[in-house]
Amino acid sequence: xxxxxxxxxxxxxxxxxxxxxxxxxxxxxxxxxxxxxxxxxxxxxxxxxxxxxxxxxxxxxxxxxxxxxxxxxxxxxxxxxxxxxxxxxxxxxxxxxxxxxxxxxxxxxxxxxxxxxxxxxxxxxxxxxxxxxxxxxxxxxxxxxxxxxxxxxxxxxxxxxxxxxxxxxxxxxxxxxxxxxxxxxxxxxxxxxxxxxxxxxxxxxxxxxxxxxxxxxxxxxxxxxxxxxxxxxxxxxxxxxxxxxxxxxxxxxxxxxxxxxxxxxxxxxxxxxxxxxxxxxxxxxxxxxxx
Amino acid sequence: xxxxxxxxxxxxxxxxxxxxxxxxxxxxxxxxxxxxxxxxxxxxxxxxxxxxxxxxxxxxxxxxxxxxxxxxxxxxxxxxxxxxxxxxxxxxxxxxxxxxxxxxxxxxxxxxxxxxxxxxxxxxxxxxxxxxxxxxxxxxxxxxxxxxxxxxxxxxxxxxxxxxxxxxxxxxxxxxxxxxxxxxxxxxxxxxxxxxxxxxxxxxxxxxxxxxxxxxxxxxxxxxxxxxxxxxxxxxxxxxxxxxxxxxxxxxxxxxxxxxxxxxxxxxxxxxxxxxxxxxxxxxxxxxxxxxxxxxxxxxxxxxxxxxxxxxxxxxxxxxxxxxxxxxxxxxxxxxxxxxxxxxxxxxxxxxxxxxxxxxxxxxxxxxxxxxxxxxxxxxxxxxxxxxxxxxxxxxxxxxxxxxxxxxxxxxxxxxxxxxxxxxxxxxxxxxxxxxxxxxxxxxxxxxxxxxxxxxxxxxxxxxxxxxxxxxxxxxxxxxxxxxxxxxxxxxxxxxxxxxxxxxxxxxxxxxxxxxxxxxxxxxxxxxxxxxxxxxxxxxxxxxxxxxxxxxxxxxxxxxxxxxxxxxxxxxxxxxxxxxxxxxxxxxxxxxxxxxxxxxxxxxxxxxxxxxxxxxxxxxxxxxxxxxxxxxxxxxxxxxxxxxxxxxxxxxxxxxxxxxxxxxxxxxxxxxxxxxxxxxxxxxxxxxxxxxxxx
Lengths: 291, 695
Description:
The complex is a heterodimer of chains A (291) and B (695).
Chain A: H1 38-46, H2 53-65, H3 69-89, E1 94-98, H4 108-115, E2 120-125, H5 128-138, E3 144-148, H6 154-159, H7 161-166, E4 174-178, H8 190-200, E5 206-212, H9 219-230, H10 242-247, E6 252-254, E7 260-261, H11 277-280, E8 283-290
Parallel strand pairs in A: 1-2, 1-4, 2-3, 4-5
Antiparallel strand pairs in A: 5-8, 6-8, 7-8
Chain B: H1 16-34, E1 38-39, H2 43-62, H3 69-81, E2 82-83, H4 85-102, H5 112-153, H6 157-169, E3 174-179, E4 184-187, H7 189-195, H8 214-226, E5 232-240, E6 244-256, E7 262-271, H9 272-287, H10 297-310, E8 317-324, H11 327-334, H12 336-353, E9 358-363, E10 368-374, H13 382-394, E11 397-399, E12 402-404, E13 408-414, H14 422-439, E14 444-446, H15 449-470, E15 474-483, E16 489-498, H16 504-511, H17 514-534, E17 541-545, H18 548-551, H19 556-567, E18 574-579, H20 588-597, E19 601-605, H21 613-619, E20 624-627, H22 629-634, H23 638-648, E21 652-655, H24 661-670, E22 674-675, H25 686-694
Parallel strand pairs in B: 13-14, 16-17, 17-18, 18-19, 19-20, 20-21, 21-22
Antiparallel strand pairs in B: 1-2, 3-4, 3-7, 5-6, 6-7, 8-10, 8-13, 9-10, 11-12, 15-16, 15-22
Helix pairs in contact in B: 1-2, 1-4, 2-3, 3-5, 4-5, 5-6, 5-9, 11-12, 12-13, 15-16, 16-17, 17-19
């Protein structure tokens, strides 16, 4: 669930402003109390209460434009569960979940360790509150940890002590990037970013991805993206076509049924897809295997 | 699921068909839920979970006596599954509401629908309570996470401002870094929102604390500096601007520098308002009435269940079912908005009046309220409580310049058996209320089991009444109306007579038979009057009382006109009397005015207890009013004031049900004009009355 760190420099009305020229991403936020976090907006849309007023405000604004959104969030969560189970079936016992967000219901470690308590999971998020929350939740779990890092800095993620300690890079790893890459603009080259992680993974590893779909998008979804982009959140949404998302799987072989609507990826029961067809196609979902 | 321990053994062992039917229902439940909830269970696990829950519910439905507690537990259990939320509750109630009654095992006995409804109410109540708790827990855990994130960032002024900013921007909580000297080093914008202005660095934190919180704050800071715990948490009031306060919870903990020496104190202020609003919103949605903020009927019923179980057996509980008198009148005359304000006022007053008791005040529907009191030795008796309520509400409140005073009537059930079902208890209170409303406003009536018997007897009588009327068993009798001071005959009143019941008109009113029967009464009475007058035997004013039903009958005017035409009775010799309480009902006041226009004299009975009774006299063409029997016999000194007020408006006052010379004397002195009652002559057949009058 996370997003790129664009930490604003400390710039308040009364204090001196840091040199602007050096910070290309400078967003004149100052110290603002009303900045929604996409991790918490997602939790709100899922039906949780791990959020603050600013998050709920953005969440309900988007919900108004796209009334089916709670079911999209739910389908993404269901897909996560199926994908982790699929990877467990393939013998994967270690997971790197990038942009894990606020731990809610049916987290990766719950699904995986329910089947094998020895399964190891490292979560990564940049939001300090989400990280603190995860730490509280994971205390006492020796096989799971959270790293506070920016996904766009793969070196920092891969070199972090928790990743080094919990993950073995000589056996398959499940790399999870759900609802993440649409926060990366084209100019920051999401393909290269994924490739960086891919190169670190041993053969037989998998990538699991969901991404907001551009092809199916109607006007309302455009407006919803606008709500996010115009909110004070530092995260900007970049929707992509089937072709563009497929390109992110470069170097991976998509497993059956390929890159499809989130509800269409190996549904297991009635809760796995929405009654309204367009909601099933709202996200592209795919699982790729590194040969 | 873990079955509640009080699972009854009474449940019949389900046969194979019943087991299969339950399985089909729980799978349907699971299927419908799965598309709206987020839970950590697989499809099979959810099927199994809900199957277990359904068995628990079925066992509860079979239990004797019915105990809805397992339903409440299932509601709580659903919340514990994950993000189930309102759509999940809606689907659950929907599928179980239809599905449980469709199960063969619940089709035989007629009490199952009632149980299913009660059970689902309990399920929703359990769900709401658990969901409210869950949300607060989640919010609390977010506050903890925020605090942890702030602590983990550690405070190093040169390097950590950026880290702190990262936390602070995502927070609506106020965050302060305070030096060991108590002076603020750094503050985020949110604290400015809370206290109405961002404090400058260098300001002493103590200067922001409201005087009544200074001691608590000082103790808290001492504990922080002594590092008794990881952090300290305390509700504190902060000064907000010149003369306002902000309620917050302060969490404070010690920060250390690179050498592990204490360097600063981190203070986080949660604005309690948002949490409180959220909490309030949640509870209001499902358990509270939005207008008044009081618990609603569903909450009240569920609560009854609990208090019946836990009440002190020595004192028990008392249930009041209250109804505002003449509320419809307020709404009709002043509009719904004024009515709403009045309801809010009554809600506030009731809550204040009951604040010394362990009591719940609830709003049911419209103008009805409920109170359940868990009695103690110190609880006042029912009469005292009711008097306190009516005295308080008699103080007028002003809404849009209308001074409104109200009275309430009540049905009371005192110390019911702890085994009684809440729905039955509510029915008993309602029955007693209707009994109380029958008599007068501002009254209360205790529920007696013989009321039930009486009511059944009434039903039986009502059934045979049409036959009795047809066969001539119901007749018309006449009673004299006399001038109190002189004993002179002022008129004659015609009443229905039936050997089987002295409440003939009342019963006929309940069934609607009064419409033809009442018209018949007027025809017989006016026919008799004409007969006597034409024979020169008696020339007097003749009176007939109309019931509520008749008074609001859209055909009343044409019925009366037809009868007068048939009998030739001069309209000015006929007096028609309406119950004053009916005037607020649509149509009654119009009927009254139209009848008065034709020359008929109009009187009001049941007069004297409603707050608006007097007002009618100046608004409508009323010739006289009739004070009812119980007020007559009470001889309240304030009644003299009533007589004067009525006279001031140019209206005669008649007292009903005078039985003794002493009563007659008292009312003569009070200034009443006319009287009816056994003391002046009981109802008799036409011939007998005439004989007496002539003799």
